[in-house]
Amino acid sequence: AAEQFQHGALAGKRVCITAGPTREPLDPVRYISNHSSGKMGYALAEAAADAGASVRLISGPVNLPAPARVEVTSVETAEEMLAASLDGIDQCDLFIAAAAVADYRPVSVAEHKIKKGSEEIMELRLVKNPDIVATVAGLQEHRPYTVGFAAETRDVVGYARSKLARKQLDLIVANDVSNPEIGFNSDDNAVTLVSADDEISLPQTSKRQLARQLIEQIAQQYHQSTQ
Ligand code: CTP
Ligand code: CA
Q1: Which run of H or E residues covers position 151?
Q2: Is 93 flagged in the annotation as binding?
Q3: How far is residue 7's CA from residue 82's CA, in Å, rounded to a whole number?
Q4: Can you tell me which atom of ligand 1 is nearest the CA of 173?
Q5: CA 133 to ligand 2 centroid distance, Å
Q6: Are 57 and 70 in contact (CB under 8 A)?
Q7: What is the ipTM, given to two decimal places?
Q8: Structure confidence at residue 183 as a pLDDT band (50, 70, 90)
Q9: pTM of the model
Q10: pLDDT tens track for 195-212
Q11: How far separated are the first and last CA of the chain, in Å rounded?
Q12: Is residue 63 annotated as a catalytic residue, yes or no?
């Protein structure tokens, strides 16, 4: 490990990674969230540490142990994840957004448990959450090399490419979540790494293996961009 620390592809670099779901409270006992396990983000954190990076993991609520040599900041909501991500962003050389951030949150959080009414239909008002990775990629100062994920069920690379452009990312990892064997809660994944002028397919393997391949590719493209 000491050898990897000196010679790894990310030796001397600081990598900040978001992972897991966010949880958006409705009242003191309820929230809106999603099925993200956090496995991909945690595997990336481990792989980046093994590649010699100093790693900060900004994590939503997950059931995973903190990877060795990784500094974990636990958050719940998208707004907390954004604040934690921006805190110390000037130290990050690379930012990898693997979190499944809730796109919307309840407009307001009830102070007390919401009581069941007599109506059959109950409507919730939601407001859009800030886009964390787009905020980081749009920084005028201390902008890290920024990598996003795109979870898609159709035209995977097409939608990923439009997210790459819209969010001003350097790279995007396109993830086909329509296949139950890969993505969200499974142990395996298969992705396509998309940049402005290239596409690299990484076939189905364990999230741990895939994370190693992804970190290797991301490190390569990062170093090319700083030349
Ligand atoms: N992301 C983020 N903050 C948000 C929403 C998404 O940082 N509020 C990041 C994710 O971590 C991921 C990338 O943006 O790296 C793409 O997320 P995705 O859900 O695929 O894209 P959205 O822009 O939310 O579009 P949609 O869900 O409509 O496909
Ligand atoms: Ca989304």
Answers
A1: strand 145-152
A2: no
A3: 32
A4: 15
A5: 11
A6: yes
A7: 0.99
A8: low
A9: 0.95
A10: 999 999 999 999 899 999
A11: 27
A12: no
